[in-house]
Design a protein that fits this description.
This protein is an alpha+beta fold. The chain has 1 helix and 3 strands; from the N terminus they run ββαβ. 18% of the residues lie in helices and 29% in strands. It has a 3-stranded antiparallel beta sheet with strand order 2-1-3, covered by helices on one side. β1 and β2 form a beta hairpin. The radius of gyration is 13 Å and the shape is elongated. 7% of the residues are buried.
Length: 73
């Protein structure tokens, strides 16, 4: 049971294949269980889909995640 809408910010490093090589918590939501579950979900999503245009590829992504994505500010 989560209180409110905790927001966690992660830095994700990728290979050009879309494989996730590292995930780092940049800003904790203050709820360790949410932070840990979110990090595990990011890792399980590897490999991420590659963009159609290779120029759009970015080796580093910043992901801001919360349970209610419409309230994730």
């Amino acid at each position: 049971n989560l209180q409110g809408n905790p927001v966690a910010v992660f830095s994700v490093s990728l290979l050009p294949s879309g494989e996730i090589i590292s995930v780092k918590l940049k800003r904790s939501s203050g709820v360790p269980a949410w932070d840990g579950a979110t990090e595990r979900a990011i890792l399980k999503s590897s490999p991420l889909p590659k963009p159609d245009d290779p120029v759009a590829f970015s080796r580093e992504l910043e992901l801001k995640l919360c349970p209610d994505e419409q309230g994730c500010f």
